[in-house]
């Protein structure tokens, strides 16, 4: 493809390179763009047993490098990055931003987490979550981040401990004091002030919220509810799949029918304890439910928890509702004919 390359020999499979550019000087070792290592002059041969991570960049990388490269390069392509070590898997980073000087947007890199200044180095046996940034990552993190990072990325969060799986955070906002709407988080409950710490053996439910749902429900709800939850919606028909709803909102007085939460019957005061042999549908709610209500609830309740709901019938699957909200007073105990 490029002048000076030896001809292809039989029985030698050449990895692929998809470039739309002239690849000039200044290419560090281990680029291994899915190419035979002899493609670029001066590069050392590829060693056995070393997997080179992919880099797909749609940008001008230094001089003489037009866009749409979509290369597969080692993380040493950029100055200041440490070389890849054996046995260390490099997490993916897809950034659509200017990272330091001379780096236009649309990079979509797969780089080690040390690419950004101020991040601690990766340690052995610690899996680094993914970071997908569509922003200029400089001081702090501007909106539209959509990160998958360890909780130490944001100030004030406790460090990650061994053996503790860090939930994902997908934030499309400035995460500063409090949390504005459109967060779409998957975080441990310690991210929000005033929430009790996560305990061992307790699975933290997911929260993906893209709004404050107050009066009515704005678009982009993405419900997993029976459509009759909201007034004016037609009743659910057989054989019709109900779209999902993941909301972060204040759910005020009363709960319309067919919410069909998956909660433990002990979630609300005055509910009888769960009995053996009775499977109660689940609700995973991460919200402030007044006193004595931890965030990682994952409680289980029968669908008749709210007045006006018909009893659950056999063979009918109850859709899930994941709400982060303030559940106020006036919730009666559940009724289940099978208990």
Shape: elongated
* SSE string, helices as H and strands as E: EEEEEE
* Total helical elements: 0
Which structural class should the secondary elements be placed in? Answer: little secondary structure
Uncertain segments? 1-6, 8-339
Distance between the termini: 74 Å
Which sheet architecture does the biggest sheet show? 2 strands, parallel
Give the percentage of residues in beta strands. Answer: under 5%
Our Rg estimate from Cα atoms comes to 26 Å
- In round numbers, the mean pLDDT is 33
Question: Which sequence of strands runs across the widest sheet?
Answer: 1-2
Number of strands: 6
Q: So what's the oligomer here?
A: single chain
Provide the helix percentage.
Answer: under 10%
């Amino acid at each position: 493809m490029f002048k000076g390359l030896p001809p292809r020999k039989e029985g030698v499979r050449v990895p692929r390179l998809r470039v739309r550019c002239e690849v000039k000087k200044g290419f560090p070792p281990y680029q291994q763009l899915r190419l035979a290592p002899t493609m670029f002059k001066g590069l050392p041969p590829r060693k056995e047993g070393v997997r080179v991570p992919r880099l797909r960049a749609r940008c001008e990388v230094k001089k003489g490098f037009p866009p749409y490269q979509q290369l597969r390069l080692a993380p040493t392509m950029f100055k200041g990055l440490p070389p890849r070590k054996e046995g260390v898997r490099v997490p993916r980073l897809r950034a659509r931003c200017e990272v330091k000087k001379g780096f236009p947007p649309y990079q979509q890199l797969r780089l080690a987490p040390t690419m950004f200044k101020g991040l601690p180095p990766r340690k052995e046996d610690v899996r680094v979550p993914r970071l997908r940034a569509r922003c200029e990552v400089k001081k702090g993190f501007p909106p539209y981040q959509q990160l998958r990072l360890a909780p130490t990325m944001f100030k004030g969060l406790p460090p990650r401990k061994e053996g503790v799986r860090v939930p994902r955070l997908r934030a499309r906002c400035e995460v500063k004091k409090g949390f504005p709407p459109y967060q779409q988080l998957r975080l441990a409950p310690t991210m929000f002030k005033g929430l009790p710490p996560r305990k061992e053996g307790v699975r933290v439910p997911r929260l993906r919220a893209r709004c404050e749902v107050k009066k009515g429900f704005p678009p982009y709800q993405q419900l997993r509810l029976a459509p009759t939850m909201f007034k004016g919606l037609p009743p659910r028909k057989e054989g019709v799949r109900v779209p999902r709803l993941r909301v972060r909102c204040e759910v005020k007085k009363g709960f319309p029918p067919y919410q069909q939460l998956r909660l433990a019957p002990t979630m609300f005061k005055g509910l009888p304890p769960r009995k053996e042999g009775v499977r109660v549908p689940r609700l995973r709610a991460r919200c402030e439910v007044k006193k004595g209500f931890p965030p990682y609830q994952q409680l289980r309740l029968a669908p008749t928890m709210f007045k006006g709901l018909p009893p659950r019938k056999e063979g009918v699957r109850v859709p899930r509702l994941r709400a982060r909200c303030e559940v106020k007073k006036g919730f009666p105990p559940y009724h289940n004919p099978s208990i």
